[in-house]
C-alpha cells in the first residue's frame, strides 16, 4: 500500500505540458511537476519520487530528497514562524509545519530542533519536537550487542549522552567512554554495547574489536616504554592492572590474550614480555 510521506519507484502513465502522471496504485495517478521531472522521462519508465500533499492538500510527487520521511527523526532548522506554528526546512520546496501544540518549547527562527515526522488526521506531513512521547524506552526491540546502529544525539545527562537508536529507541553513551566532541542533533554511527535486564540500551561509538584494539595498544605502548616488560599477568590484582594501564582486569585479560595469540607478547610467570 502506497502512503503519503514515503519514497517509491513509480511508473509514468501519462505525459502533459505541466508534468507527468505516475501510477500510485491505491492513491491513483499523481502528478510529478515538470520542474522535478528528469529529462527524457517517457511513458512506461519508472522514477524514484517522494510523495506529499501540496498546498491544496492533493497528493503530489517530487524527485527532491527530504531530510526525513514520515516515521523518522531529523535535526531541522526553523525558516519561518507564523500564526499556524513554525515551518522547518526539510529539503523540499514546501516546508514542514510544527504546530504550536507540538512544540516542546516555543521555537525560534534560525534555530534547529530534533523533530519527528508523522501524518496528521488529514494525511498532511507534520512535525513534533515532543520527541519523548515518540522515542521508545521499553524492551520491545531486537537489538543485540555489537550491532552497528545509527544514532542521533538528542540530550545530555549526568551519566552521558542520550541518543535515538535507529529511529526508534533511547540509548545511552557514557561520558567517560566518549573521546570526541558530540553536539545536539548530530547523526553518527555507533554500536550496541550492552542490553540491560530491563531492555534499556547502553551504547558505544566503537565496536568491541576497536575497543580491544585500543586496550592492546595501551599495553604495547607501556611495554615499549619499559624495556618490553610489565610485572603483571592474568592473576595480578585488579587494582595493580588499573594503576598501570587504566583498564579493568577483564579488559586486560582479553587484550593480552589477543596479543599472545598474535605472538606479539609472551606471558611469563611474573609478567608479560614483548616478543
Overview of the molecule:
With 275 residues, the protein is mainly beta. It folds into 4 domains: 7-62, OB fold (Dihydrolipoamide Acetyltransferase, E2P), CATH 2.40.50.140; 73-132, Nucleic acid-binding proteins (OB fold (Dihydrolipoamide Acetyltransferase, E2P), Beta Barrel); 148-206, Nucleic acid-binding proteins (OB fold (Dihydrolipoamide Acetyltransferase, E2P), Beta Barrel); 209-274, Winged helix-like DNA-binding domain superfamily/Winged helix DNA-binding domain (Arc Repressor Mutant, subunit A, Orthogonal Bundle). It has 3 helices and 18 strands. The protein has helices at 208-225, 238-245, 249-261, and strands at 7-16, 19-23, 29-33, 46-53, 59-62, 73-81, 85-89, 96-99, 112-119, 125-128, 148-156, 160-165, 169-174, 187-195, 201-204, 229-230, 265-267, 272-274. The strands form 4 sheets. Strands 3-2-1-4-5 form a 5-stranded antiparallel sheet, with no helix packed on it. β12 (160-165) and β13 (169-174) form a beta hairpin. α1 packs across α3 (249-261). It is elongated, with a radius of gyration of 26 Å. The model has no long low-confidence stretch (mean pLDDT 91). It comes from Novipirellula rosea. Residues 3-64, 69-130, 144-206 form the S1 motif domain. InterPro entries: CvfB_fam, CvfB_S1_st, CvfB_WH, NA-bd_OB-fold, S1_domain, WH-like_DNA-bd_sf.
Question: How would you concisely characterize the structure shown here?
Answer:
With 275 residues, this protein is mostly beta strands.
What descriptors fit this protein?
275 residues, OB fold (Dihydrolipoamide Acetyltransferase, E2P), mainly beta, elongated, five-stranded antiparallel β-sheet
Amino acid at each position: 500500500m502506497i502512503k503519503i510521506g514515503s519514497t517509491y519507484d513509480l511508473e509514468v502513465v501519462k505525459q502533459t505540458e505541466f508534468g507527468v502522471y505516475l501510477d500510485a496504485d491505491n492513491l491513483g495517478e499523481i502528478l510529478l511537476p515538470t520542474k522535478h521531472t528528469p529529462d527524457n522521462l517517457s511513458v512506461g519508465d519508472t522514477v524514484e519520487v517522494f510523495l506529499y500533499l501540496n498546498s491544496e492538500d492533493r497528493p503530489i510527487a517530487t524527485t527532491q530528497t527530504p531530510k526525513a520521511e514520515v516515521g523518522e527523526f531529523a535535526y531541522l532548522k526553523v525558516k519561518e514562524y507564523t500564526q499556524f506554528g513554525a515551518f522547518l526546512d526539510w529539503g523540499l520546496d514546501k516546508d514542514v509545519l510544527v504546530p504550536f501544540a507540538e512544540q516542546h518549547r516555543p521555537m525560534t527562527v534560525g534555530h534547529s530542533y530534533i523533530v519527528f515526522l508523522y501524518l496528521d488526521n488529514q494525511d498532511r506531513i507534520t512535525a513534533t519536537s515532543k520527541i519523548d512521547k515518540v522515542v521508545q524506552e521499553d524492551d520491545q526491540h531486537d537489538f543485540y550487542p555489537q550491532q552497528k546502529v545509527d544514532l542521533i544525539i538528542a540530550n545530555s545527562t549526568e551519566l552521558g549522552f542520550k541518543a535515538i537508536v535507529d529511529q526508534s529507541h533511547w540509548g545511552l553513551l557514557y561520558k567517560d567512554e566518549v573521546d570526541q566532541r558530540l553536539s545536539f542533533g548530530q547523526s553518527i554511527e555507533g554500536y550496541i554495547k550492552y542490553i540491560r535486564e530491563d531492555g534499556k540500551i547502553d551504547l558505544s561509538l566503537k565496536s568491541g574489536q576497536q575497543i580491544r584494539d585500543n586496550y592492546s595498544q595501551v599495553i604495547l605502548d607501556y611495554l615499549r616504554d619499559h624495556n618490553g616488560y610489565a610485572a603483571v599477568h592474568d592473576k595480578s590484582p585488579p587494582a595493580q592492572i588499573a594503576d598501570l594501564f587504566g583498564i579493568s582486569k577483564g579488559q586486560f585479560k582479553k587484550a593480552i590474550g589477543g596479543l599472545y595469540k598474535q605472538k606479539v607478547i609472551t606471558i611469563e610467570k611474573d609478567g608479560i614480555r614483548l616478543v
